[in-house]
Please model this.
Amino acid sequence: MSEFSVGHGRPLLSTAQVSYKKIVPLLLVALLAGCAGRSTEDMPPVEPVPAPAPVPLPTPKAPPVQPAPVPAPPASQPTISPRFAPPPHVAAQWDNRLGVYVVPKRELYYRERVYYQKQGGEWMSSSLPDGPWEPVAAPSVPPGLRSL
Model:
């Protein structure tokens, strides 16, 4: 068995006593002790690295956008569109002059959920195109129909 001795020939440690568990911490302490004695004053100063300047991206030059010309409506078409929903029970066409829907081939008019029909010079109204019909006062008749 080999022995380690210091000074007077007396053995300090035997190889059997030396283990890695004892040597590794001693080595770490020795390494760290060498680093601890060095000061940062001996080191040259570190200059900060400037950030790179942003690179401007080229902007594509698109041709100016020209809005499409809006064609004027033909003179024969009405200039006002219907403000009211069409009748649900019959086919009808909007008449701008009268301001009501007109049911073709019948003297029947529709506006705001009410059908109108003139019978014997008096205006009648109904919620259905075939009646039942009730007399209606002139102020309740749509203005375009009052002149008929």
Summary: The beta strands are 3-5, 11-14, 93-95, 100-103, 108-111, 114-119, 122-126, 134-135.
